[in-house]
Amino acid sequence: KKMASSSGEWTQESVPSHTPCSSCQVEMGRLGNTSWVHQGRAYCEKCYKSFCCETCGACNQPIAGHALKLLGQNWHQECFKCHNCRTNLFGKGIRHYKSPSGPVCQNCRNMALNSAAMK
């Protein structure tokens, strides 16, 4: 398996179990024998993700795979939720808006606008 990043190509390879991760120095055998290799150096999955993956705007964890790029941030699909009611906003045709606290659905936005208008 090959992945491209801004730092170049990474390949997923099996390595001897005693091989240490080039970043955290943990032996690969303790983590499973699959590593990510970049410029001839082996890295564990955790370190690979920290170097190559986008970070989710909600949970701050690396996104391995497809990242949603919305509202100026990256998101896991399951983390893209309304900040107020926690409704998942991904792929359901629900309109979403940017607020200072995070994304909000149309219902929560309308309630906030109506509340502000009544003051």
Descriptive notes:
The relative contact order is 0.11. The mean pLDDT is 81. This protein has a 4-stranded antiparallel beta sheet. It has a two-stranded antiparallel ribbon with strand order 5-6. It has a two-stranded antiparallel ribbon with strand order 7-8. The chain is built from 2 helices and 10 strands. With 119 residues, it is an alpha+beta fold.
The termini sit apart by: 58 Å
Q: Averaged pLDDT, please?
A: 81
H/E series:
EEEEHEEEEEEH
Counted by DSSP, the helix tally is 2
Name some characteristics of this structure.
alpha+beta; four-stranded antiparallel sheet; 2 helices; 10 strands
Q: What's this model, at a glance?
A:
With about 120 residues, the protein is an alpha+beta fold. The protein has two helices and ten strands; from the N terminus they run ββββαββββββα.
Helix and strand arrangement:
Blueprint: E1 2-5, E2 8-14, E3 34-38, E4 41-43, H1 45-52, E5 54-55, E6 62-63, E7 68-70, E8 73-75, E9 96-99, E10 102-105, H2 106-118
